[in-house]
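To whoever picks this up:

The nightly regression suite flagged N-formylglutamate amidohydrolase as changed. Nothing in the input moved, so I suspect the structure step. Input below, exactly as stored in the fixture:
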Amino acid sequence: MILPYTLISPCDEQALPLVFDSPHSGDVFPADFVSKVSKQQLKTGWDAFVGELWRGVVDNNAYLLLATISRMYIDLNRAPYDIDPALLDQTWDFCQPTKYSDRGMGLIRRMALPGVPIYDQTLSQVQIQARLDHYYHPYHNVLQQKLDSLHQTHGGVWHIDCHSMKSRGNGMNIDSGLLRPDIILGDNDGCSASAEFVKVVEDAFIERGYYVVRNKPYKGGYLVTHYADVANNRHSLQIEVNRSLYMNEESFRPNPNYEKFQTDLNRVSAKIADYVASQI
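Regenerated output under the current build:
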């Protein structure tokens, strides 16, 4: 059995109630995955190097949770019931497809890229349930447990959901064809994190010279909306970084700016950690 995640923890004595997670950093496909889609096409859903880029958060006394399994197998940033009926061999009452499934990007992706279906046959309820049981629920359980434990100890917890985005939206995206900014912060239009916290993150990126946008087109996916509870001092923020800042999007290799961008993220995470430390 493939382990569904890696949790990297700071020194217990200095650990902050600050958790970074990367649900799309995995690139492993379990043996039961069958598709005629090329490896290069499947890689387009991979948040390449995101785990490595944010590795410095642990040195800043935060936790880092990394997915192992590819989002093309099961998407950890979707609701467990966001299942596209078009993928199923029979009706399943559990399914509650959302706008993501409508675009072929639900819990189990139907499309790898515009016009490129992943499967040439339907999937069974048993197959999807196995993906939920073996990979989805363990990831969410460990994240929930860590957030709850830190909140209980400190009276507050701050969660950052880390992603990368193509430099230009494609036909499956709501910003199809448009160039994207350097950084997009998603706080569900101000509902998933305090304004003060979001501004700290925004200012940290701007100080490093990056162009930052809030909530357009990414407001935050399931992880941010599900784990946020601002009234109870639980804050969740999604950070999307433009892939062109650190990698060649065709070859999936680091570009010459990789190390500088990683250094900048370390400095951003240090600012975030300083803020969280001031709140407890």
